[in-house]
Amino acid sequence: MRIFLYFPFSLLLKSNSILSGVIDGLLIKKRYSEAYQFCLIGLENGRNRKLAEESYWWDYLHNCLKLIRKIDRHEDRNFFIDIAQGKKNDGAEARLVASSFIELSRWSFKDKDTDSMIRLAKCAGEKDPSWGEPDFLIGWYGLFVDGIDYIGYFKSSITKERKYINRIKNDKECSHNKKVISFIENYDS
């Protein structure tokens, strides 16, 4: 004799571990639109959760940001910028939080929103001060936008993580800039 328990599916989605498993399964199957919808559920569920579950919220946000490109939902960009800036990251992994802001900054660059791209990259640097990516990105933006001390930002990224020397050397835009080439040549000596 089998006993079937009635358990509403919506209650299962309140569990971060179950919801994360559902999202991972959808991503593996390349069902991106559905995964995006479940990430949105996770974001909504996590608005008032305990600090111990804070990293799940940032993971949902990070997945949403990656999925938006795949499903062409760029019109949601401002929504994600607003919720990310309004959310504290106590208890969440700093790199995950910072990488979400980096992704938002890159969107702003594509949309030619200079103020947002710089502000969001700086916010990423504040979230994870040991990571060189925010400084590298601001320096890279400086190749296209006047008034940014791109050499200073490149230097800062290398100071934080030496691997950025190679990233700068191998970057197509950097390799065409005489000041950057000179900086790297002198930095290596």
Produce a short descriptive summary:
The protein is mainly α and 189 residues long. It has helices at residues 9-12, 16-28, 32-45, 54-71, 77-86, 94-110, 114-127, 133-142, 150-160, 164-170, 178-188.
Primary descriptors:
189 residues; 68% helix; mainly alpha; single chain
Care to describe what's here?
The chain is mainly alpha-helical and 189 residues long. 68% of the residues lie in helices and 0% in strands. It is built from 11 helices and no strands. The protein has helices spanning 9-12, 16-28, 32-45, 54-71, 77-86, 94-110, 114-127, 133-142, 150-160, 164-170, 178-188. The protein is elongated. The termini are far apart.
Show unreliable segments. Answer: 1-8
Beta content: under 5%
Taken in chain order, the helices and strands follow as: HHHHHHHHHHH
What is the number of helices? 11
Largest sheet: none
Output mean pLDDT. Answer: 85
Number of strands: 0
The global form is elongated
Helix content: 55-70%
Structural class: mainly alpha
